[in-house]
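One-letter codes give the sequence; the fold follows as tokens. Both lines appear below.
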Amino acid sequence: MTLSGEIGRKLSPGSRLNGEFDAWILNVASNPYRSVGISKTLLVSGHDICHDVDEGAYRALIDTVTRTTGMGKGVFLSTMKYMSETFARTQLKMWSLQGALETTTADLWQSSLTHALTNDRPKLGLDIIGQMLKRSEKHSMLQVFASLDDEVLVKIPVLWKPYAEDLVSVHCSNQSFSRAREYAVTPRAKDVVLKNIAASIGYRGTPDNWASVMRHMIKRSKFDGDSEELVTKHRSAAVVVIGEILAMDDEAITNQLNTDELRLMAFKLGLESAVESIQSLQVRAKAFMHSLAI
């Protein structure tokens, strides 16, 4: 029988009704190599082992393994991911009180938090966030939020919204400017996006506004090498800038930018709707000028 099969059988409901389980646990406690093997097996096969276990037997096993060879990846992740949410929350609190989490690394916290948030276990997710903040792992926590799809985030706004401005900076660091702009709802956060985009495209100094960044991008796009770089490497930044420009009123756009150059930039980026919006703007501007001439 494989070790995975043996663990599953020993932890099955009713397994503690005879002395066989107790004898097995004593054997694990006296054999560090076996303890390490169990932790490794839980890491690989925890999903299959934990789906139908006697929780008392499981707790006895992980307590024994932890005392014998320390907190291993298998014990931590199988508990956080595959045991019931109630069990996992209780065990996390117990480990915290026992001081057993001090060697838990950032990647394990991130893995367990990602799993909790993507598998409808928000209460456990909140507990994990608390532990991460307690251990100065805020950046690791933010990276998890930054990696989640919108369909997950929409279910847990109470968890990530307190860190919305922090996420703006994280997305900017990851060069994900479109996502950064989504989170930027305050003037300060929007200014962070503006400055980071300006720096990413080689703008020297502090930009006054989106139009000044757009003019710099248009200037760079006139050179073949820079034009290709803007379309590939800096596309996320360019899309945000054009979006911000089109959010301005017609007069502000036509006064600050050459709309023909702006339309060409949108075309190079493949932004068909933006091209159409700029063409409509140009039509409106010509109609306005014509009315003045009349």
User: Anything to note?
Assistant: The two ends are 94 Å apart (CA to CA). The first helix runs from residue 3 to 10. The chain is about 75% helix and 0% strand.
